[in-house]
Amino acid sequence: MGLKVLGIETSCDETAVGVVEDGRQLWTNVIASQVDLHSIYGGIVPEVASRQHVRDMVPVVEKAVSDAGLALENIDAIGVTYGPGLGGALITGLNTAKALSFALDRPLIGVNHLEGHIYASWLTSHVPDEDPGFPLACLIASGGHTDLVLMEGHGNYRLLGRTRDDAAGEAFDKAARILGLGFPGGPEIQRVSEGALGQERLPRAWMRGTLDFSFSGVKTALLHMAQARGIYPEVAEGLEGGELTGMIREMAAAFQESLVDVMSAKLFEAAESYGAKGLVLGGGVAANALLRQEVSQRSPLPVIIPPPVLCTDNGAMIAACAYFQYLRGDQFGLELDIDPSLTLG
Is residue 126 part of a domain? Predict the structure, then answer.
C-alpha cells in the first residue's frame, strides 16, 4: 500500500480537504465553497471566511476520508497550508491539522500554498518530473498572486517574476465590478466575453526588460473606457438591451485578452530564457479557457494544466505537495505557525 496523505487547504474562502496516495493517485477532493457568502459583498470578507471555515472544517474532513473508503487511522501523514493567505482562515486549517497529527501520531507537514498549486499538475495523467522533466517554467496565477517560477527540482524554485500591483485574479474581480458583473470576476468575464467580435482593444503593460507583471494600468484603461461609453459608475440613460450587452461583452473580452496575452508571452519568455523543458500552469486564473487555449496552442514546449477543479484552491494539491516534502524528510512540529506573507523562491 502507498503512503496516503490528507491535505487541508484554508488559505482563503474554500474549506478544502483531499486524500492523495504517493503524491499522484487522487482518492478524494472535497471543497466547501463560500462564493455565495461573499458574492453579496463583491469580494472576500476575511472575518466571514474565518467563521465559515470553523463551521465547515470537521464535516469536510469527515467527508473526504469517508468518500475515500478510509478511516482516519488509515491516513499516514497530514499536510496543511500554512501560508500565504488570510491569517484567520489559515489558523483554522493549521489547528485542525495539528489536532489530527497529535491525535493520530502522524507526521505534520506544512505546505506553501503556491507550491501546492504547482503540484496540482502531478495529479494529472502527466508525471512532470519525468516527462518533460526539470526545469519547468511555472505560472501561478490566482486572486492573490501572479508569479513566474522556475522549478529546477522538487523543493527547488527560483522566482523569475511577479506582479508589481494587482494579481491577475484581483484584476479580473475589479474589472467585473466596473462592468457591473458578479463575483468572482474571472468566470464572469470569461462568460460574458463569449461571442465577442474583437471591436475593442486595451493596452498591455509589457514591463520590458523584466518578467514582472503589472495589471493596474489595463484596469484603469477599462475604467476610462467604461466611463466614456456611459457604463460606469451608472449606465447612461437610453443605453439598454442589446446595445448595452454588446458593449459590455466587447470590453470584457478586450480586458481578458490583454491579461492573457501578457501572461502567456511572459511565460514563453521565461521558458526560453531559462531553458525550461515544459510549462506548468496553476492557480484559479489557470482555469480561464482563453489562457489555457493560448498557452497550449502557442507553446513549442509540452504544457501541463490541471483540470479547472484542481486549479482553484483544493486540498488534493496540498496532499500531493506534502508527499514530496515527506520524501525529502520535511516534517514540522506542533509549534508550526501561519505565515500569511509566505513566498516561493
Answer: no
